[in-house]
Amino acid sequence: NAPGKPYAFVHLQIESAAEEPRVLCIVQDTTNAKTVNERLTLNLPASTTVNKLYEDVAHKAGYVNGTFCLAWANTGDMAPLDQASEMSLVLSGFEAGKRNFMQLTDKEGEQPQIASVNSSGLDDSSQDRFIGPLPRDGTVGCSSDYSSPSYSYSSILNKSDTGYVGLVNQAMTCYLNSLLQTLFMTPEFRNALYNWEFEESEEDPVTSIPYQLQRLFVLLQTSKKRAIETTDVTRSFGWDSSEAWQQHDVQELCRVMFDALEQKWKQTEQADLINQLYQGKLKDYVRCLECGYESWRIDTYLDIPLVIRPFGASQAFGSVEEALQAFIQPETLDGPNQYFCERCKKKCDARKGLRFLHFPYLLTLQLKRFDFDYTTMHRIKLNDRMTFPEELDMSPFIDVEDEKSPQTESCTDSGAENEGSCHSDQMSNDFSTDDAVDEGICLDNTSTAERALKPKSSLTFELFSVMVHSGSAAGGHYYACIKSFSDSQWYSFNDQHVSKITQDDIRKTYGGSSGSRGYYSSAFARCVKPPKFLDVEDFPEHIKRLMQREKESEEQEKRQREIERNTCKIKLFCMHPIKMMMVENKLEVHKDKTLREATEMAYKLMDLDGVVPLDCCRLVKYDEFHEYLERSYEGEEDMPMGLLLGGVKSSYMFDLLLEIRRPDQVFQPYKPGEVMVKVHVVDLKSESIAAPVSVRAYLNQTITEFKQLIAQATGLCAETMRVILERCYNDLRLLYVPNKTLKAEGFFRSNKVFVESSDSADHQAVFTDSVLWKLLDRHGNTIRLFVSLPEQSPGSLANRTSCPKASADSEDSFDGAKGSRKSVEAILEESTEKLKNLSLQQQQQQHQQQSSSTSDSQKSSEHSDFELIESPAQEPDAASQPSQTENCTRATSDTENQFPSEDHSSDTLCNADSGPLPLANGLDSHSITSSRRSKAHEGKKETWDTAEEDSGTDSEYDENGKSKADAQYLYFKTEPYSHEDGSGEGQKCLLVHLDKRITLAAFKQNLEPFVGVPSTQFKVFRVYANNQEFESVRLNETLSSFSDDNKITIRLGRALKKGEYRVKVYQLLVNDPEPCKFLLDTVFAKGMTVRQSKEELLPQLKDQCKLDLSTDRFRLRKKTWKNPGTVFLDYHVYEEDINISSNWEVFLEVLEEPERMKSMSQLAVLTRRWCPAQMKLEAFREVVLESSSVEELKEKLSELSGIPLENLEFAKGRGTFPCDISLLEIHQDLDWNPKVSTLNVWPLYICDDGAVIFYRDCTEELMELSEEERNELMKKESSRLLKTGHRVSYSPRKEKALKIYLDGGPTKDPGQD
């Protein structure tokens, strides 16, 4: 095929069908529970088009074509295949001869239509029915997770058959979905909700619970989607996303939601709706068995909790009727439980019980399936079988006399204050998803659907809804079985799945030993004819307006989804000529847009308008990982992007590059199959390496042919050419076999080679001994480091002159290759004329002969194509180049010439007049300094050496460091670098290019002239992420762990010698709000005594911390986090008596009197008196004990405080020093007066100095506080503990209570404890 006609073969007929490759398609139908584990297999010719594939799948699956989508199965977010596409399967991403897995999915949230005309006429008995939990979305094919021997999971009927919409499970909101569907299917509730009108001027619609329920119900009734979201409803509850991961009890949710609705509906027609529908009354009575006197009160209820298995019994009730009978069965109060009779004026035997006075319109029964096992001390689920009837006659359970006129009783109706009192055992269950099996909850609501057809008792209720919980007490799944009032058909509402079920399926929810599924709560309704659901045409006007808004929103969402489905999203790269770097973006283009239109979109996306003309840009296929240009699209400017990119996909195996050329250039065609080679020309005479020239070659070319290709591109002689391939870092391979192919030599998509062509004798040398190899070797090991110098360097830097870095838009600038507006080839052509020299490390005799103008190499950043930068004085016209914004070159400094004497001559940077060059910031070149000294900078002291990058136990000082510095790798070159801080002043910095095989000792020696002090008097810190600094101390180790652009900070201070350790000294201030204060960094040595270290600290403390102390008036002690530990005695020796390590931390404690700690057998504890009568804690005071005896501790505390020994109680503090605790909790929360005789046993475990002991006088009464005083103290203590951060909670994670917030969200009161 011609390059411009890549798809010409699509329409060609293959002469022999037998020769045509075939595509095996395996399709999984994810829209149907029955077929989710089945596969449709199609073996099609490779030339089959995508639209023909849709036809074949529709025929095989029995669906109407156009009502479903096909998508790739290997990625969950893959966009569906375009049904109208005429592209062949091969061009659409299918692989011939391999299995191609597809998924058949819903189209726009609607299930596929079944093609069979008889499908709607099938008898119910012949159709598969579904009841029970389904696999969640995203776990297709995992229905076995919910398998149960007592259930057969049958197919879900299509939404078009059921007519009902499901609800999406946010995470663990199945309990909410079940309740919402039950309320939606209750005509009285739904119609009343529709009749309520939302006033936007009075309330925010986002936080209005009735309004969001109204919206949800409208969508459930009118939406075309298979399932809708409930996030707006939960947002109106004041819930955040974390609530979606908390599973609660459905009956608890019902109660809480009804309370919230009643609050919202105050002063409206719906104010009493909940009570009218769900509230009943019962009498709680006690009757004296001697005189017959009865005392009672009336309570209201919204549901009736029924016990499954009485306490202590092994046999459960067999039916709801039995449980109801037990509910009203009175108990006899006798013996010690006798009742005091008001009439008899004495304790008498009595009967206590409940009587129903009035049943609600909708009766809700809740089975108490969740119980507590006192043997195992775990919550359990009771799966005992309990039957319930289709019709429930409640007349046997009502008090007939009271039912006649319950309102005329001469008693106090306590319903308002005791509403729901019979639900005291209601559980607030916080379920987890650990258990994959769902536990059933059944709600039986008697529907009033067709109860007037035959004579029935007025107290006969018809089963209407069953809530089922499947699983265990630890977690499970809720779903609802609901009877429709409109057609008397039962449906299973299981999150997003709705299906028809039968009475047989309902009976399966009774529970029993064979499975863990059982109904949990049920609802019945009175047997009167129920009202009809409001039809759309009968909606109130405000609901019609709401429905229209939701319809428009759904249409807009549908259009947006359609656009998304047809939009190609692909990574776009561009070498931006202004930003001087490779810029990445995301190109989103409709599949029908042409390449020309897409190029214009990319042009605008990359902000190139006014920078380069549009006709100088083109899009090419690009591999960013290998930096490889795969192909260009000549002659295909009018081709749709969908065809060019191989269809709409969520991710592509390639990227696009917006390539830019100069107006006088022509774009080079890139053909598939070519490899890209970056050719760097090496000049041995000038010891320079040129920037790369891009050459495209073929893998089957020989080395001879490849040399000819390079010769054409570079103008070098192919006969004398040496070609070196850099296969990976530091792996140089000389290509010397003429007939060997590039593929055999290890070439890949993108390659890097160095070429040299000269008549020098270096050709005769063995490659690894040649000058060329040494130049390339050093080039490959040279890195660039940013070095921040000390802010106040002693000594004069007058002998050094320097120059700011060339400006970013200079053609010779460091990153020039990245940012040029011209094409790579154009830049390279210009750069070839201006090659900058790369210095090669010469032998020792050459060092002495060379002048200070020897050129040095400079390596580009890892993203740049340039591998060298200019060196001074090599090109006489360098200063006069018009592209230079400043007529100077970078500062260089040859260490070979600098360090032999103090008056070393580094390369002086000169302008055209050879005068000293002023710096850009106006400072002289010899005074590169900075006054930056911010608090933030000083604050970093605490993080300098919190860890050591070398995990050795010692700072290995190499006494031969000087001689090591003169070893093989001495390449070292510097230039000034200005780092701007927030104040606008530049930090004094150096840009250092060096061979990373140099040792730390040599690196420090080379930095001496710039720091101004000997290498033993400054420290090197490596800067990591988040500006963490760790000291590098191993002088023998090389810088091989460093890489380009790493940052180093130099700080003044004596470097460590062998056996020395860096130590951070903190002051311990036991009675200060912040007891740990950083003082200074110092050095302790192995074998040093504590007294010697204290003597060395004295002058440092005086100079740096203004602390004028004597050795006997302060002590050093162990520091563990913020806890004070062992007191170090003067005669202790580091590393013998005291373990010491790198970046060690120690406490310094100022003493008010001479040291009392003289021996390791002594114990120093910090004590604090608690005064309950004053509600205050006294200051810390140290007590030194001679032993671990509790008796001695009490004696010392009694002597200290004056509390009599027999009245003294003590407790150990909890948590981190200073063991803060709320004054409201300390009196009862601590373990006062532990029954031990020594301190070093459980529960005290006081074995080391620094433990905190609280003590008190047990005869002292706790201060009585008024409610106002208590609240005030609570706020103060909460604020204090919050600031110190010392509050420690020992309690395990508590179950989260279910709450609905009427003000839009939870309020966090910092004053609450």
Automatic annotation (TrEMBL):
Superkingdom, natural source: Eukaryota
Chain coiled-coil ranges: none
Compositional bias (Polar residues): 407-429, 793-804, 880-900
Keywords, ordered alphabetically: Hydrolase, Protease, Thiol protease, Ubl conjugation pathway
GO biological process, one term: proteolysis
Residue stretches of biased makeup (Low complexity): 839-858
Cross-referenced InterPro entries: Papain-like_cys_pep_sf, Peptidase_C19, Peptidase_C19_UCH, Ubiquitin-like_dom, Ubiquitin-like_domsf, USP, USP47_C, USP_CS
EC id: 3.4.19.12
Protein name: Ubiquitin carboxyl-terminal hydrolase 47
Source organism per UniProt: Cyprinus carpio
